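Re: that backbone. Tokens:
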């Protein structure tokens, strides 16, 4: 287990335990893997396979946000949480993105050759994404066969959600282009994990496409990370969630983080100035 240096402020306070379940507003079926966070606070969780969740809150009058693929995002005051109903979202995928490939040629693009990992605390759901454009030397090879994630997991069979977004006019991630839930299981340790999406027959449009890694704050992903104070005299173990996405450096790639429901975008100018790390994601293309 990695030993890292972090600065911590320890405090004690009374907290209220909020339990609930998230269901589809039409079918009444529980919704698994819903991302949940508290507005303006680093507190969050994810519903389990049966749609249940648990939050520890100091105040019962906080705004809690519920977000998941295929449903409208909803904000609920924590004092009124017990059963949360989410409305299904109707999305029309642009027709130009779907076609039938011949699959006679295949290439891997993305420029990830050697990744590294950061000691990131995941106390609210995160989305890490990067943009892909057509390979200039292989413009006829544009159908996405596989999503390739470079991951590190401190637990066996940790899981994350894979997502694919269209690029909005403002350059930010737009609607999901795959409406199915893609939950990916990874082995313990560092691995190159491939996700077959060939059945969706997606192709990269002229303005690019965005591939995303979404963390899930689930019991099966929990591990305890060993951390030290700045003077190396105090040691503690803090709760964290696996798996983690790797990173690499390349200044001309656009990347994105989503936290607290807001996308942050990092362009080539920002990458060059601050050496911003890019999520270690490749894709396999066919013609």
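Recovered sequence:
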């Amino acid at each position: 287990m990695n030993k890292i240096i972090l600065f911590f402020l320890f405090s004690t306070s009374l907290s209220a335990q909020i339990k609930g379940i998230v269901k589809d507003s039409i079918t009444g079926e529980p919704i698994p893997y819903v991302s949940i966070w508290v507005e303006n606070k680093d507190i969050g969780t994810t519903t389990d396979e049966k749609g249940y969740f648990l939050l520890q809150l100091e105040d019962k009058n906080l705004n809690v946000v519920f977000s998941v693929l295929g449903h409208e995002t909803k904000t609920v005051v924590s004092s009124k949480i017990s059963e949360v109903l989410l409305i299904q979202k109707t999305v029309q995928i642009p027709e130009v993105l779907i076609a039938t490939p011949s699959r006679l040629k295949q290439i891997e693009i993305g420029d990830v050759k050697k990744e590294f990992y950061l000691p990131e605390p995941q106390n609210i759901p995160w989305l890490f994404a990067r943009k892909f454009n057509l390979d200039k030397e292989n413009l006829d090879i544009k159908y996405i066969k596989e999503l390739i994630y470079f991951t590190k997991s401190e637990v066996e069979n940790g899981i994350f959600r894979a997502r694919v977004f269209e690029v909005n006019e403002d350059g930010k991630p737009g609607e999901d282009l795959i409406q199915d839930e893609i939950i990916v299981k990874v082995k313990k340790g560092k691995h190159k994990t491939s996700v077959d999406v060939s059945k969706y027959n997606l192709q990269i449009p002229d303005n690019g496409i965005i591939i995303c890694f979404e963390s899930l704050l689930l019991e099966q992903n929990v591990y305890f990370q060993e951390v030290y104070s700045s003077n190396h005299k105090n040691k503690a173990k803090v709760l964290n969630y696996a798996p983690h996405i790797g990173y690499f450096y390349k200044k001309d790639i656009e990347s994105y983080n989503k936290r607290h429901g807001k996308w942050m975008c990092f362009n080539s100018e920002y990458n060059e100035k601050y050496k911003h790390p890019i999520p270690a994601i490749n894709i396999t293309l066919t013609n």
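The two ends are 42 Å apart (CA to CA). The chain has a mean pLDDT of 88.
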